[in-house]
Amino acid sequence: MTMTTDTFAMTTDMMSTMTPDSETVFISVSANSPDSFMTSDTFPHENITIASVIASTTEGPLQGFRFEDYTQRAIMATIICLVSVVGFVGNVMVLLAVNLSRKLQTRTNVFVVNLAVADLLTCFCAPFVAVALFSMSGWPMPEIVCSNIAAFGFIGLACSIMTLASISINRYVLITKTIATYRSIYTPKKIAAMVVFTWGYPALVVCCLPILGVGKLGYSDKYKTCTQDTSHETSDLFSSLSSALIYPIPLIVLFVCYFKIYRHITGHMKKMMGKGKGVEMTDTSHFSTAASTTQLHKNPPASFSKRQVEITKNLFYVVCAFVACLAPFAIALMIPPSDPVIPWTGMIIIFNSAVNPIIYGAKHPHFKEVFRHMLRCRYHMIPEPSGCLRKIRSR
Predict the structure, then answer these.
(1) 174 bridge partner residues
(2) Among 158, 177, 201, which Cα is nearest to 322's?
(3) Total structural domains within the chain
(4) Which residue in 348, 331, 148, 122 sits closest to 228, CA to CA?
């Protein structure tokens, strides 16, 4: 009996030594103490078992991760600021280009403009994320500011993916259907309704879930940024529900539409090559109400819808860039011990807001030309100047 109590006393002493930072107080029991046997009265205010103590000393190194490394946070915040500046300038150029050239004022580019606005919203929120990362004492502004920034960030990202899905449907209808069908679907009113939906649905999801008690938007003390309060008991449920309600369907639409476009183009090209002729489709996606018809011309096979195919390829690159920026974060979320890399993968998502204008400038046949004249301040050489640009010239 004496050996047993001595062993237990050594064990409790060892446990108290192993966990000096624990808030639990362990009482060493001497072999000669009259309280050698420990009863339920020994700890009147604590319900502690040996199993729970052992579990607390064997937690993994990533358990309870907190992004406390200030050097990493400062580097990340600096990168975010630089990306937000590049993205802001690039997306403003996209908006100006569409405003200055009638050649860019097409039905498809309504969605491109919408995507640029969503990216601008992301660029606007990014500096506030940098402020949170730079701060050494938590969020330095009112909590409502952080909550709103988190909401805008979620909505902007969700709007981007839904706009990309809308663009893919637009290109699919334009390339695979008749012009009459395209014009009947993409009327100004219907396009406006589509744009409103790309903003309204994400806003509804992001705002309603916290109202229903699922998650809480605000400062994350774990990741030191404005996303959602990760200490909230339903934080994980918010992440799961918001992701499930927003991302899967647009991603499926994206890949299905572009796959069908690819099959349609390759199939038609083979058919035309077999007949020794090609078909070139004029760009009929302008808002102009002037009558236009599909014109068929005998040309070399490679000329089939060359302009529309190039524009579609450019927009597909935008989709690839979005998926490439989003994929690391999505993969990190699915791997449980990946907490240390989640802030970095989340930062990569912001890169997408700056990449799109670069893709337009490098690949899009119309944006490329207008961008070149804008950067060289040769506004008089912009093709098909808009009414706004003509007024500026006349002054």
Answers:
(1) none
(2) 158
(3) 2
(4) 148
Residues 143 and 8 in one domain: no
State the Cα–Cα distance between residues 167 and 164, nearest whole angstrom.
5
Q: Are residues 99 and 49 in the same domain?
A: no
Residue 228 sits in the same domain as residue 322: yes
Domain shared by 8 and 79, yes or no: no
Question: SS3 string of 105-150?
Answer: CEHHHHHHHHHHHHHHHHHHHHHHHHHHHHCCCCCCCCHHHHHHHH
Residues 268-286 as b or e (16 or more Cβ within 10 Å = b): bbeebeeeebbbbbeebbb
Whole-number Å distance between alpha carbons of 339 and 335: 9
User: The whole model's pTM is what?
Assistant: 0.76
State in Å, rounded, how far the first CA of the chain is from the last one: 104
Structure token digits, residue 16: 């108290």
Residue 327 lies in a domain: yes
Q: What are the residue ranges of helices labelled H in the chain? A: 2-18, 50-57, 70-100, 107-134, 143-176, 179-185, 188-211, 235-246, 248-275, 306-334, 342-363, 365-375, 387-394
pLDDT tens string 344-366: 999 999 999 999 999 988 888 88
- Residue after which a domain boundary falls, among 34, 57, 80: 57
105 phi and psi, to 5 degrees?
Answer: -90, 70
pLDDT for res 277: 52
pLDDT at 202: 96
Could you tell me if 44 and 161 lie in one domain? no
Q: Does residue 28 lie in a domain region? A: yes
pLDDT of residue 276: 58
Distances, alpha carbon 256 to alpha carbons 88, 172, 185, 260, 265, in Å: 31, 10, 19, 6, 14
What CATH number did the domain enclosing 326 receive?
A: 1.20.1070.10
In this structure, the answer to whether residues 97 and 176 fall within a common structural domain is yes
Are residue 199 and residue 75 in the same domain, yes or no?
A: yes
Range of the domain at 310: 70-394
Whether residue 65 is contained in a domain is answered as no
Look at residue 305 in the predicted model and tell me its pLDDT. Answer: 59
Q: Is residue 359 part of a domain?
A: yes
Residues in the chain with pLDDT values less than 70: 1-63, 275-305, 336
- How buried is 351 (Cβ within 10 angstroms: 0-12 exposed, 13-18 middle, 19+ buried)? middle
The two structure tokens encoding residue 73: 């946070």
Same structural domain, 36 and 14: yes
